UniProtKB/TrEMBL annotation, chains A, B:
Species for this entry: Streptomyces swartbergensis
Keyword terms, alphabetized: DNA-binding, Transcription, Transcription regulation
PANTHER family recorded: LACI-RELATED TRANSCRIPTIONAL REPRESSOR, LACTOSE OPERON REPRESSOR
Chain ranges of the HTH lacI-type domain: 2-56
InterPro entries xref list: HTH_LacI, LacI/GalR-like_sensor, Lambda_DNA-bd_dom_sf, Peripla_BP_I
Record PROSITE patterns: HTH_LACI_1, HTH_LACI_2
GO molecular function, one term: transcription cis-regulatory region binding
SMART domains cross-referenced by the UniProt entry: HTH_LACI (SM00354)
The protein's name in its UniProt record: LacI family transcriptional regulator
Amino acid sequence: MVKITDVARHAGVSPSTVSYALSGKRPISEETRRRIEASIHQLGYSPHAGARALASRRSNVLALVIPLRAGIHVPVVMQFAASVVTAARQHDHDVLLLTQEEGEAGLRRVADTALVDALIVMDVQLHDPRLPLLRALDRPSVLIGFPQSSEGLTCIDLDFRAAGELCVEHLAGLGHRVIGLVGSPPEVYVRETGFAQRVVQGFTAAADRNRLSSSVRPCESTPAAARRVAERLLREQPALTGVVVHNEPILEPVIDAFEGLGLRVPGDLSVTAICPDELAELVRVPVTSIAVPAAEVGAGAVDLLMKKLGGGCAPEATLLSPRLTVRASTLPRP
Amino acid sequence: MVKITDVARHAGVSPSTVSYALSGKRPISEETRRRIEASIHQLGYSPHAGARALASRRSNVLALVIPLRAGIHVPVVMQFAASVVTAARQHDHDVLLLTQEEGEAGLRRVADTALVDALIVMDVQLHDPRLPLLRALDRPSVLIGFPQSSEGLTCIDLDFRAAGELCVEHLAGLGHRVIGLVGSPPEVYVRETGFAQRVVQGFTAAADRNRLSSSVRPCESTPAAARRVAERLLREQPALTGVVVHNEPILEPVIDAFEGLGLRVPGDLSVTAICPDELAELVRVPVTSIAVPAAEVGAGAVDLLMKKLGGGCAPEATLLSPRLTVRASTLPRP
DNA sequence: TTCCTCCGTCGAAGCGCTTCGACGTCCCGC
DNA sequence: GCGGGACGTCGAAGCGCTTCGACGGAGGAA
């Protein structure tokens, strides 16, 4: 293994000079830097991560806690993870993957052993048991998602309430008066996952504001459940002409179900969804939708963390505004 | 921060004794160990990962390279990742997440900086550009998936060839004489991803062996493509009564497509798939299938790595035998 | 009883890096 | 012409842990 002293000797300088040349924390003359870089290259030097972490008290590793629970849509989680990794790399950090299995103990472990400098936590519940720990930890953290109160924390996410509202406003703007929400699986609400509830709140608030008749139905992520929910919505509100779907796996099944009940999309029924663009575009009738901007959220989370690591302070709440992409599934009410 | 010297002082022993008590690398009397454990608990000590890595030349971190490319089925990847993390934790290791973005440079970086002790690489191509690097690296690695030649490497995966064969044998055993394979998206074959090709090989070999008439069609992961492929298969082989699907996202669309063409499943057409059990069970007609045993593969990969890290040697190839679960989608030929 | 071995513990020497204070040197302003 | 910065570099002191050799004492064999 080639170490910094080898490089130093080869370049005819002291180890500290090599270190400074590498970190840029002190000025180094152009010529010396060049020599050092050449030596590094020739010798194939790469600094030992452990030694660096020990001496600098920075591991340059972030922890990412990903959810693997029922009812979550895996591809979206993966998008988050990928964007976090990419963003972290841009800041010269790596990402340690934690699952929720280990729970709070895992968070505490990686933080206490200084394995990581900071933490990113996904799939936050309204009353998440990890919150006290995160508040108490000496390492900064960012939550992707919002608990009941973000006090003393740093949270970032799509503004799901606004997303729910925006879907309704879009439908209302097209003249629809009777609308329904096909929601996430019941367990997601039972767990009090913030984003699902917030969509419902936004949906309901906007419906009331626009004096629309509305109803909300959680729905298991199976085609059969989709059919049941469609039937039920239609039975309760026969004049239904607009639907919002917040449940990725059954977007297409829901549309199929309504068509099976004799409603053409978008002829008789306008459909909007909160789901990734790829999904919305893949459906038989491309669906007007609001995407979760996973890349932005991931990058934003990392940026917030870097700010905190740099000693700066970060806002408690960062809400990204929803953007609705109009596709073929929504039309003015006939 | 509480360190090992603090624990040592508190317990009235030397730091090395604490270290040995923790690692078990030398015998420590029952009583001393108890005192040390008590001190650790009271003081809330956790060893500094960086210091440990520096002194012991082991970071206790594994790198996991996950694929994020077109045509791969994300939930399966996630299952692998989760099982790797779980297995790694059981061996007191953590997992560093790498995406393929950084490519070979990323592998080299985490290996050379001693950030990780070993590597797990997923989504291996037949002629994967990373192979020479993995062979040359001074750190052990395990591939999940098989390249053309596994010489000098350690690979583990479901035996996809056997899986393809098993699907055919099952259909042949039921009396079907004309069968088709709805494969993965074309780009997966173009990339020469081993597992997809091996299914085709197994399918073809078993079909020939059983003197079945067979044909193979790659298929994009969209319902429209599924419909086209179904039509085409049927046009070419009007007597078709058996189909193998190796393309998770369109399993249900393929069945819909055939039913749309007038074939009842399983009445007129038997369908088997290579896909996760959850998916196979979720379809309208539960599908006879072979699952990729993600948990086993992940755990196996970690075990192999641990063996190599312990100085042992690991077999170049570990193929897990496919297991076929019979469900409602296959029946004897009428 | 003597010698040897094994057990349990200690002290010290690093592991490879960063960082702090110090020390010339050069240049600028007065 | 001289004081004072800024610049560029060095040496040394750790960062917190593991590990190696050593050592005293207990116990068994001869």
